[in-house]
Amino acid sequence: MLKRSFVSISLAVMLVFIASSAGAKVTAEEIARLGKDLMPMGGEMAGNKDGTIPAWEGGITTPPDGYKSGMHHPDPFAADSILFTITKQNMGQYADKLTPGHKAMLNLYDTFKMNVYPTRRSASFPERIYEATKKSAATAELVEKGYGVKNTAVGIPFPIPENGLHVIWNHILRYRGDIAARYIAQAVLTRGGDYTLIQLGDEFNMLYSQEGMTEEKLNNLILYFKQKVTSPARLAGGSLLVHETMNQIIEPRLAWLYNPGQRRVRRAPNVAYDTPGTASDGVRTTDQFDMFSGATDRYDWKLIGKKEIYVPYNSYKLHSDKLTYKEILTPLHINPEFCRYELHRVWVVDATLKEGSRHIYKRRTFYVDEDSWQVLLVDIYDNRDQLWRVSEGHVINYYDVPTIWTTLEVHVDLQSGRYLAIGLDNESKMYDFDIKRTAKDYTPAALRREGKR
Hints:
alpha+beta; 13-stranded antiparallel sheet; 9 helices
């Protein structure tokens, strides 16, 4: 009898643990709020009480006059004037709406400032994404202690989040179009401002979000990703292929590398976690790509709550083809004259390294846009609990899709005075959201066939 009672208690405890890990589904009453007092994606429809954040009214629903597909996106808010500029001298006035990372940059760098513009809630997405989000909200669940998701496809799985993992999964599974190719540059700057430009071609095939997708069709895949270095000559021809999985505990990310010198494709199981990113000179980890990507299992994720802060947003000036890379890439940080910051509500999530897990970052604080689930800022701490790096995701609405996505990611190393900028497209052709691909284009054999200097 004692043994049976012990087993029963243990089973009950285990079931409670599983339920708490998965998170209770939201109620029908909560789901009914989507599209009413909550945006279809889950953000608050209303503005703030001070009137400094306006109500969401659908975001950008039509491109500006004169826009044609394939153009760099004209700034729909070009007439906006700077409201005020935050500097080292006056930052105390705005301290409650600044992240520790931005405070540190203002204190460290006399050349850094933040031009704050009127808040424009420009986020918008196709109607089918809104509909799928409402459907997923009723069924989506975390599995494997929150390190995977089930019963969801196409839409945002947790538009009314209850914990930190809900928020970070919303970022991982957010809508970025169906398929996209981009032709970008990245640069790692020394403290003095020297750099070598790296040219890249990226492809994202976002399986999860595609129309008519189901969990069964996905077969545990979120997306295909392919990247090829095109210059400089010493790196040209190197390629990476990734099959990103939804549950990376059951099936870890699958990755392959093509080495042009050997003309061979090899499995790359270490393209994950804190492995240095492609040609990043150690300034960015693999899981910092897209602000955060990959498995979540090495951290404990705590939802701190929602906060109003100044974030990079509607960065059309930084995206402009009227700028050169040289104008943007200045020592210590990108040129602040071309950056736009706005006051937005963000979800704040603290990720702390689990005991027994390994990563060069002990803690990361994520600031996630309530309107789009895009990570906008990250404060990153080392194993001494010192603020080490600050990441910024400068976003625009690619209104021909439409979707909110970065036009430039910047990862600043406060301790070395170096930084990495990835996504530079001012001197290249624009993102192509209309490329045609099949699953056969994302196989190791296809990677080998494409391999050449």
